[in-house]
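Homework help board

Subject: predicted structure for assignment chain

Our instructor gave us this sequence and asked us to write out the predicted structure in token form, then describe one feature. I got the tokens but I'm not sure how to describe them. Can anyone check?
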Amino acid sequence: MTDRPRAQIRYDKDADISLIRARKVAILGYGSQGHAHALNLHESGVSVVVGLPEGSKSRAKVEKDGLRVLTPSAAAAEADLIAILAPDTAQAALYERDVAPHLTPGKVLLFAHGFNIRYGTIVPPAGVDVVLIAPKSPGHRLRETYREGGGVPSLLAVHQDASGRADAIALSYAAGIGSCRVGVITTTFTEETETDLFGEQTVLCGGVSSLVKMGFETLVEAGYQPEIAYFECLHELKLIVDLMYRGGLNYMRYSVSDTAEYGDYVSGDQVVGPESRVAMKAILGRIQDGTFAKAWIDEMKAGGPNFRARRAAETTHELEQVGAQLRSMMPFVSPVTIRPGE
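My token output:
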């Protein structure tokens, strides 16, 4: 391993939470991340308003949660710090319509993912700070850990430092959502965006999904019962990932049988081998040069026909049908059902 600079990790002792408490914060969006940021900040003593369109179904939820709700434009107008937490492909239009007209010098523009800054679909004016606070968990987990007195790690980046205090303000925001309780790692918008997209596509979502489906299909095609294949290729995956989560690959291998560990060593590289590395590098290249971002933006501009068709098709895979039946027999997994189009 080559020598690399150690990551800068900061905690509550390094943050001045009074900086964010002195500002009016607008959270644009009230989905997974938006609701968690808004509620955590509110309970940390920060003045928060949520920006949602007049017809949004989430408005009632915001009010029930005890927060003020305005239109995105009105929220951006009165706020000192504007957090854009809408879906990636909706952010550029939201910014142009509701944020840009109110982005006066001295304000702060905050993102939880660097996508639109990295690929230039949002270009803020020179007089504002542009920062990133990206929690490394879904929003519901960010909220749960905060309420338990903990937090989840976040990444912090500064794209534009007009005030000379952008880093300190971003760190203060991170303290407000609870991330400084466990650690905030300094990065860049480019690094956060490219590594996030790469992880999702090659390992966390794309890679794992394809591996699970292919394993299931291989066993079923060989004549084994689909129910057995489901348990071996999907259900038990959680047990393995939980071990990795707690202690890395070493702890997983320590915890499983010697037979399973040996099988890991002699067979893993045959399944995910040199060809996979070549594919990963190609995927990373498309992320780095903007090919993926352009294709995704164009897809959604067209109404997402291919995206929605693939989503619907995947829900009818035999793995999903068998899994739904088995999960209904296992209330301890808290089963949920997603139907095509949802």
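Reply (TA_rk): Your tokens look well-formed. For the description, you could write something like this. Residues 22 and 80 are 9 Å apart (CA to CA). That's the kind of observation they're looking for.
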